[in-house]
Amino acid sequence: MSLVVEHRPQESRFVVALSAQGPFAQLDYEVAGAVCTFTHTIVPPEFRGQGVAAQLVEAGLAWARAQQLRVVPACSYVHTYIQRHREWQDLLS
């Protein structure tokens, strides 16, 4: 499933509309100094297992890298994702 991930910096989150009227999936974060903490990944149950969370996390990590931020994976999904995808491990704070 290829989705459009929207970055909403004013809300400190990345969002995917899963249909024209919603629902939404999101990846929330907090930035303090040069550190980005990913706090929550939320995907509605009926869309789990379809790669939605992975696309959100990829977008978030790519943004953090572009901003030269270190990453703290407070969210268990983000933590597991980084452990499984070594190309992102250099971002860990």
> Helix/strand-derived class?
alpha+beta
Count of individual helical segments: 2
The CATH architecture category equals 3-Layer(aba) Sandwich
Q: State the separation between the terminal residues, measured CA to CA.
A: 30 Å
EC number: 2.3.1.-
Keywords: Acyltransferase, Transferase
Protein name: GNAT family N-acetyltransferase
Pfam families: Acetyltransf_CG (PF14542)
Summary?
The protein is an alpha+beta fold.
Write structural notes for this entry.
InterPro entries: Acyl_CoA_acyltransferase, Gcn5-rel_NAT, GNAT_YJDJ. Its EC number is 2.3.1.-. It comes from Roseateles paludis. Residues 6-93 form the N-acetyltransferase domain. It holds the Pfam family Acetyltransf_CG. The protein has 93 residues and is of the alpha+beta class. It has a single domain, classed as Gcn5-related N-acetyltransferase (GNAT) (Aminopeptidase, 3-Layer(aba) Sandwich). The chain is 26% helix and 31% strand. It has two helices and five strands. It has helices spanning 52-66, 76-84; strands at residues 6-8, 13-17, 24-32, 35-42, 70-73. It has a five-stranded mixed β-sheet. A hairpin with a 4-residue loop joins strand 1 and strand 2. The longest helix has 15 residues, at 52-66. The protein is globular and about 35 Å long. The N and C termini lie far apart (30 Å). The relative contact order is 0.19. The mean pLDDT is 95.
